Model the fold of this input.
Amino acid sequence: MEILLKAEDKSEILRFLEYRGQEMDEELSKQIDRCMEIINTAAEPAYISREFDMKPDGSYPDECSFLNGNDIKKHLLGCKKIILMAATLGAGVENAIRRAQIKNVSDAVIMDSCASVLIEAVCDTIDAMFRAEYEQQKLFLTMRYSPGYGDLPISIQKDFIYLLDTVRRIGLNVSSSGIMIPRKSVTAIIGVSETERKAEKLGCAGCNLIKACRFLRRGVTCGR
Amino acid sequence: MEDSAGNIINPLISKGIIKPGKISILDGGMGTMLLAAGMKAGEHPEVFAFNNPGIVEDIHKKYIEAGSDIIYSCTFGANEKKLKGCGITTLQAVLSAVKTAKKAASLKEGVKVALDVGPIGELLEPLGTLSFDEAYNIYKEVMSIGEEAGADLIVVETFTDLYDAKAALLAAKENTSLPVVVTMSFESGGRTFTGTTIPSMATVLTGLGADAIGFNCSLGPKEILKFAEELVQWTDLPVVIKPNAGLPDPVTGKYNLNASDYASDMLAFKKFGVSMMGGCCGTDPEYINKLRLSLKCERDARNAADIKTAGMDSSDSDLNSSISINDRDYDENILENYKSTRKIRYGVCSSSKMVELNKVRVIGERLNPTGKPRFAQALLEHDMDYISRMAIEQEESGAQILDVNVGVPGADEPSLMIETVKAIQGITSLPLQIDSSNPAAIEAGLRAFNGKAIINSVNADDERLDLILPIAKKYGAAVIGLSLSERGVPQTAQERFDNAVYILKKAIEYGLKKEDVFIDCLTLTVSAQQEQAVQTLNALRKVKSELGLHCVLGVSNISFGLPERSHITESFLVQAMCCGLDLPIINPNVSSLMDAVYSYKVLSGEDENCSDYIMRFSANKESKEISGDIKCDVHADMTIEEAVLKGLKVQTREIAAKLLESMSENDLINNKLIPALDIVGDKYEKQIIFLPQLINSANAACEAFELIKERLAKSNTQGVSKGKIVLATVKGDIHDIGKNIVKIILENYGYRIIDLGRDVPIENVVKAVIEEKVNLVGLSALMTTTLPSMKETIEAVKAVSPECKIWVGGAVLTPDYAMEIGADYYAKDARASVDIAKLSFPETIEDNL
Done:
């Protein structure tokens, strides 16, 4: 997949850096450009997805029995199928950020934000691709829902990546404490429905980080 | 076992598992067969196999009927980590699966059972959190049981991390007597997901004593063909190819090659002398049957042609005893092909970078405490960031191999070597040269290094040779032989040459290859022994022309004691390269030396089309711009405060140097740097500047601190410290940027940080608190899943040191939660951490707490 950070992504990167319109000199702006470039070079985005049929009674397919909690159930209400997807920027980004932490921590912080924006862009691209595909069959998709949102626990990550065989297919692993490695990776569930879904936004209320959100602390939101 | 010519016979051959000149047929996919036989998606194959041995036995039998000579036991995921919570142990899974495979194998004489060992499923350090030793122990268990259960060989397969494969291979070699085959999975770009390259894989696994290597899974036969072509240039081992049935459809997951196409694609591998062929994902017994038939067909066709042209007689009943000739593909032409097409290339490497030894390569000498008090101090304080920065600096200056010496008095050299090697390989991909007089430290370094290293060094003294050469052989390392002996440094070129010959002879006796022996003809100081410079050059010429060995030389010693040393060093370097020096050990940060190397390579023809030279000098200007330093004009009247505020590293250092002419280190810190940082902190607090600007200022201040540390280390004065603080990202968590920001800012306030890193076991935090008598600990966690381990760490520290204060930070923490888990303070950001430190150490500067 060839998806790169573009100049217009810079404002999003700045938002991740908790930027609030402070005066920014040219050197810093160049530093951010340089970090974007490094991430673009280091990233090797890859993804994998699999579609499953929901059971006629609306319960999860056997393979996905690890899905639990009320929020994902609500999210997938009325869906005929579900798509499980996983995407990663690859180990190169991880290595580049690790090296930057030794050389220049501020580069590392900026690169980390760049990578966060890039993996979102990768997911959005995949998402849009799916949406266009399913629309042709008059099917509609819910928004992406990831382990860690609402009451869907992060601990299902292991079963999730096992089911998609991500280790072998895209090099995405999960550590024993449930952290995805490479870290700039996303797993998500998308519902497929025969009726159009009204625009949904997770919003802060549905987020399990609400009490400790670094964005909210500085008076902004992450935008979900 | 040796053949009549005294060559060691590959154990796969001596144990009758493969036959010279014959392609052994492996089995095909297991997973798809199990699914078809009723295994549920998401179910563990090993658990299914344990509960349904009959089904698995049937699958094995189908493969044997189809033509498999070697079948893989259903143990790919049979390890402690993968079986956790599955209800069966590794012992049960392996014993049962090998037994099942052996039962099936008894169907036909000669069929062998391979213990199939897949990766653990968790990434190793530095990318992941699993340690090399943990991985080793997990594999050790599987392999010991596998041998006990009667497997004929071990197959380590589908690995994507060379370090992981090294752990598995060492576990097999050190704990069993079975032959070991290692196959890895590569992506279409010719690298694995973790960045391992084919030359590195071939070189490292061959060096570590694998008995056959190759590829499995990854892609289809067509895509893997070019990998095989590359592989055979880097190894003389038998090659194994076990690809998928083509490429999977992204939606259905179905593979795109049918059995016939697959089988005919596989024939292309014969020209590379491949010894074992089979299938992986998407293949089934039909594929294996077609593979056998197409190999046989092709063979028959060529036999017919050979007979017509009165060619050679190709049957050889000795080697084909138990199985009828009509049933076999048999071809000793392969042996000939295999020998003639294989040109063995050679080099030293990390897992992701091969440094081929076919031209001058620079070895960086800076990672060495001799004469560098600041470096020695960093080693004693386990300041791996400082050491890593030295490594990066040398790499950026053009070093291609890094010498690593951690010999400081008072340190545990083997464990310090492991720590240093791991730190360096986490941030650079350069191959390493393990430099020590301590054999245990050398072995520790070679074991920890993910690549093929060089040992520095041995000499012609038998005692040293007998100690070090077996270690070099075991880990597949190259070795530097100093051309001196227990009798001292020879004064003539001839004597040095004689010592080189002796070292080479001993190395060959210990099983090393000739190209793994590098000779150092010894640089002596020209101002003290002027006649010796010529002897060194003469010895070099002789070793190069008569022995054809690679030559290393520590060059800079030549000019010791003379004014303007660089002229002598540079001139000697050039003359030595002309005489055959191809591995100069130099300080790559001295650009005149690197310029000399680049120039030499143009004149010797090594730098084709002068492209490296042109790159170096035409790109000079540009590379300075992108080096990461923020450049800006220094006004003569710029203050250090301004420089720090603007995040100007070079200027901050320069101004600090000037200020230190008239000011003590303590005054500079207390009256200049800290007030400047306080202003920066305030501006951050008030959101006048944002995070990257805060850190840029901290980085700039760091430069002044580094200067202070260098001066104090040099004058052997104890360092300034306002107090010792332990920092750690808790066990299970690998997010460490936040912790590193806190670290750099606290360091700038004069605190000494004991940085334990990320994913830190609780006992390490406790140990540091006790041993270093620390009263303030900062813990970081970014994931909800790792908060319990933060709580446990706090409890453990408080249990041994109730007076020790602990503060916590990280995205998922709140002030309330911090109190709930027993922390004394909560810091919302790095700035808040400074306030906590000030609170905990209210006094002004004390000397070296």
